[in-house]
Amino acid sequence: MSQLDLAQRDLLSLLDFTPAEVREIIETAVQLRANPHRYQSALAGKTLFMYFEKPSLRTRVTFETGMTQLGGHAIYYTASDGKIGERESVADVARNLERWVDGAMCRTFSHEMLQELADVASIPVINGLTDFLHPCQALADYQTLAQVKGGVAGLPGRRLVYIGDGNNVAHSLMAGGAKLGVHVTVICPPGNEPDADQLAACQKAGEETGAKIDVQNDMEAVAGADAVYTDVWASMGQEDEAAARDRVFRPYQVNQAVMDKAGEESIFMHCLPAHRGDEVTDEVADSPRSVIFQEAENRLHAQKAVMLLTMAG
Question: Is 9 a known active-site residue?
Answer without folding.
Answer: no
